Amino acid sequence: MPEPALRFHGRPPFTLAVLHGGPGAAGEAAPVARALARKGRGVLEPFQTRTTPDGQVRELAGVLARHAASPLTVVGFSWGAWLAWLLASKHPRLVGRLVLIGSGGFRPGDGLIAQTERVARMNERQRLAYAALAGRLPLASPREQDVLFASLGRLMSRVDAHDPFPVFSRNVVHSYAIYRRVWPAADRLRASGRLLACADRIHCPVIALHGDRDPHPAEGVRLPLSERLADFRFVLLPRCGHKPWIERQAREAFYARLNEAVAS
Predict the structure, then answer these.
(1) pTM of the full structure
(2) Are the CB atoms for 32 and 101 separated by under 8 Å?
């Protein structure tokens, strides 16, 4: 059975949406959606299938317009944080609040900072595994590429974490085809300054939750957004990597701050 393009958690009205990372790792943030729904909320978990940033924004806007009670709170993780940001800039009537979890930095040099930090964290075995997977990806068949991309994602998740619980990713749909088309275009948006310029069209409250051990630089989120947004809060989570919900020392604090953010 193919995976659905949209998962429903809780009961209507659906006032929250949780967006996955990757791009091309649909379902990655499902634990966050389930946790929010346990508080009696209706939560949507849409999958993105388009292969451009603009295409994903249009697809997402259509899904939310059909199923959500707007304006809604949009919670985005990693690439999903940028996607939520783009959505709010282009469809402000849909979005009443943004919560950005583990967002990539918004400054042109932040991608290099994150990549340098990731490489520095890898041991020799991880560096060899990363090089082998990255080398095989372009030559593999489409089906094999998705398997290799999933393996690469698991490796990077370990590198990005601080003190994680054992994690078994279930019901995550990996698509290298989506990643290799969406991510370079998204990175160009950052490099050109167009990603940050979206702040001029975002007027809803924005809250960023960021681990202090996330390789994506916290200052790449806190500084530019605090300068450009009228209603912005930044929460730095101690002893926390890129995915707060898998962190042994930070998960409880993360969910407490997240529930505060969506309820405020």
Answers:
(1) 0.95
(2) yes
